[in-house]
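Researcher: Re-running this chain for the archive, since the previous output was lost when a drive failed. Same request as before.
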Amino acid sequence: MIKQLLLPVLLLAVAGSAFAQTATAPAATAATAAQAAPAAQLTAAQKAQLEKQNAQMATASLQIAQMVDQNQIGQVWDNASTVAKQTNTRAEFVQMVGADRAKLGAVKTRQLGPIGRVQSTGGKLPPGLYINVNYATQFTNSGKPVRELISFHLDSDNVWRIAGYTVR
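Model: Regenerated C-alpha coordinates:
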Protein backbone atom coordinates (compact mmCIF):
# COMPACT_ATOMS: atom_id res chain seq x y z
CA MET A 1 0.00 0.00 0.00
CA ILE A 2 2.80 2.43 0.87
CA LYS A 3 4.51 1.59 -2.42
CA GLN A 4 1.26 2.29 -4.31
CA LEU A 5 1.00 5.80 -2.93
CA LEU A 6 4.68 6.73 -3.00
CA LEU A 7 4.99 8.54 -6.34
CA PRO A 8 1.72 10.50 -6.11
CA VAL A 9 2.45 11.51 -2.52
CA LEU A 10 5.97 12.56 -3.44
CA LEU A 11 4.66 14.59 -6.35
CA LEU A 12 2.21 16.29 -4.03
CA ALA A 13 4.92 17.01 -1.49
CA VAL A 14 7.38 18.38 -4.02
CA ALA A 15 4.92 20.09 -6.32
CA GLY A 16 2.49 21.59 -3.86
CA SER A 17 -0.40 22.28 -6.20
CA ALA A 18 0.43 21.27 -9.77
CA PHE A 19 -0.31 18.64 -12.64
CA ALA A 20 0.59 16.42 -15.98
CA GLN A 21 0.09 13.62 -19.07
CA THR A 22 0.31 10.21 -21.37
CA ALA A 23 1.93 8.43 -24.27
CA THR A 24 0.00 10.56 -26.72
CA ALA A 25 1.27 13.65 -24.94
CA PRO A 26 3.27 16.20 -26.87
CA ALA A 27 7.00 15.75 -27.07
CA ALA A 28 9.29 18.15 -25.26
CA THR A 29 9.48 21.57 -26.86
CA ALA A 30 11.40 24.77 -26.37
CA ALA A 31 9.02 25.34 -23.47
CA THR A 32 10.72 22.54 -21.54
CA ALA A 33 13.93 24.52 -21.24
CA ALA A 34 12.09 27.58 -20.02
CA GLN A 35 9.83 25.80 -17.54
CA ALA A 36 11.98 26.32 -14.48
CA ALA A 37 12.58 30.03 -15.11
CA PRO A 38 10.39 32.55 -13.30
CA ALA A 39 7.60 33.89 -15.50
CA ALA A 40 8.98 37.45 -15.32
CA GLN A 41 12.22 36.30 -17.00
CA LEU A 42 10.55 34.54 -19.93
CA THR A 43 10.48 36.02 -23.40
CA ALA A 44 7.20 36.42 -25.24
CA ALA A 45 8.06 33.37 -27.37
CA GLN A 46 8.80 31.27 -24.27
CA LYS A 47 5.54 32.37 -22.65
CA ALA A 48 3.67 31.40 -25.82
CA GLN A 49 5.37 27.98 -25.81
CA LEU A 50 4.41 27.44 -22.16
CA GLU A 51 0.80 28.40 -22.87
CA LYS A 52 0.74 26.02 -25.83
CA GLN A 53 2.23 23.22 -23.73
CA ASN A 54 -0.24 23.93 -20.90
CA ALA A 55 -3.12 23.58 -23.35
CA GLN A 56 -1.71 20.30 -24.68
CA MET A 57 -1.18 18.94 -21.18
CA ALA A 58 -4.67 20.00 -20.10
CA THR A 59 -6.11 18.09 -23.08
CA ALA A 60 -3.98 15.02 -22.37
CA SER A 61 -4.81 15.05 -18.65
CA LEU A 62 -8.51 15.34 -19.40
CA GLN A 63 -8.22 12.27 -21.62
CA ILE A 64 -6.58 10.40 -18.73
CA ALA A 65 -9.28 11.54 -16.29
CA GLN A 66 -12.00 10.44 -18.71
CA MET A 67 -10.34 7.04 -19.11
CA VAL A 68 -10.40 6.68 -15.32
CA ASP A 69 -14.06 7.80 -15.35
CA GLN A 70 -14.76 4.94 -17.78
CA ASN A 71 -12.84 2.46 -15.59
CA GLN A 72 -10.06 2.09 -18.19
CA ILE A 73 -7.49 2.32 -15.42
CA GLY A 74 -5.40 -0.57 -16.72
CA GLN A 75 -5.03 1.17 -20.07
CA VAL A 76 -3.86 4.30 -18.27
CA TRP A 77 -1.13 2.28 -16.56
CA ASP A 78 -0.21 0.56 -19.86
CA ASN A 79 0.74 3.98 -21.26
CA ALA A 80 2.44 5.20 -18.09
CA SER A 81 5.97 6.47 -17.63
CA THR A 82 8.72 4.12 -16.55
CA VAL A 83 8.89 6.01 -13.22
CA ALA A 84 5.24 5.10 -12.54
CA LYS A 85 5.74 1.49 -13.58
CA GLN A 86 8.73 1.20 -11.23
CA THR A 87 6.56 2.42 -8.34
CA ASN A 88 3.45 0.25 -8.83
CA THR A 89 2.48 -2.91 -10.64
CA ARG A 90 -0.45 -2.68 -13.03
CA ALA A 91 -2.66 -4.57 -10.56
CA GLU A 92 -1.68 -2.25 -7.68
CA PHE A 93 -2.38 0.87 -9.73
CA VAL A 94 -5.75 -0.42 -10.96
CA GLN A 95 -6.76 -1.46 -7.44
CA MET A 96 -5.65 1.80 -5.80
CA VAL A 97 -7.21 4.17 -8.33
CA GLY A 98 -10.33 2.03 -8.66
CA ALA A 99 -10.87 1.96 -4.90
CA ASP A 100 -10.32 5.71 -4.54
CA ARG A 101 -12.76 6.49 -7.33
CA ALA A 102 -15.40 3.97 -6.24
CA LYS A 103 -15.71 5.81 -2.91
CA LEU A 104 -16.32 9.12 -4.68
CA GLY A 105 -18.95 8.04 -7.20
CA ALA A 106 -19.54 9.51 -10.63
CA VAL A 107 -18.13 12.84 -11.79
CA LYS A 108 -20.58 15.73 -11.59
CA THR A 109 -18.21 18.54 -12.64
CA ARG A 110 -14.49 18.88 -13.37
CA GLN A 111 -12.76 22.26 -13.49
CA LEU A 112 -9.17 22.72 -14.63
CA GLY A 113 -6.91 24.18 -11.97
CA PRO A 114 -3.26 25.18 -11.99
CA ILE A 115 -0.62 23.46 -14.09
CA GLY A 116 2.81 23.31 -12.53
CA ARG A 117 6.27 22.04 -13.30
CA VAL A 118 8.83 20.36 -11.08
CA GLN A 119 12.45 19.56 -11.87
CA SER A 120 13.67 16.77 -9.59
CA THR A 121 17.33 15.94 -9.15
CA GLY A 122 16.50 12.77 -7.23
CA GLY A 123 15.92 12.00 -3.60
CA LYS A 124 12.25 11.68 -2.71
CA LEU A 125 11.14 11.98 -6.32
CA PRO A 126 12.87 10.14 -9.18
CA PRO A 127 15.04 12.50 -11.24
CA GLY A 128 13.42 14.27 -14.14
CA LEU A 129 10.97 16.89 -15.26
CA TYR A 130 7.34 16.63 -14.19
CA ILE A 131 4.18 18.48 -15.16
CA ASN A 132 1.28 18.37 -12.72
CA VAL A 133 -2.29 19.13 -13.81
CA ASN A 134 -4.87 19.84 -11.10
CA TYR A 135 -8.63 19.68 -11.31
CA ALA A 136 -11.31 20.64 -8.81
CA THR A 137 -13.70 17.76 -9.37
CA GLN A 138 -17.12 17.33 -7.82
CA PHE A 139 -18.22 13.71 -7.41
CA THR A 140 -21.68 12.41 -6.52
CA ASN A 141 -20.47 11.13 -3.13
CA SER A 142 -18.41 14.17 -2.14
CA GLY A 143 -19.86 17.24 -0.50
CA LYS A 144 -17.27 19.58 -1.94
CA PRO A 145 -14.84 19.46 -4.87
CA VAL A 146 -11.95 17.03 -4.58
CA ARG A 147 -8.48 17.72 -5.94
CA GLU A 148 -7.75 15.43 -8.85
CA LEU A 149 -4.02 15.39 -9.69
CA ILE A 150 -2.62 13.96 -12.89
CA SER A 151 1.17 14.02 -13.09
CA PHE A 152 3.37 13.49 -16.12
CA HIS A 153 7.06 12.70 -16.47
CA LEU A 154 9.23 13.56 -19.45
CA ASP A 155 10.68 10.19 -20.38
CA SER A 156 14.09 9.65 -21.99
CA ASP A 157 12.47 9.58 -25.46
CA ASN A 158 11.17 13.15 -24.87
CA VAL A 159 7.55 12.02 -24.57
CA TRP A 160 5.36 13.09 -21.65
CA ARG A 161 3.73 10.08 -20.01
CA ILE A 162 1.53 9.75 -16.96
CA ALA A 163 3.49 9.40 -13.72
CA GLY A 164 0.60 9.44 -11.25
CA TYR A 165 -3.11 9.90 -10.65
CA THR A 166 -4.59 10.77 -7.28
CA VAL A 167 -7.79 12.16 -5.83
CA ARG A 168 -7.60 13.90 -2.44
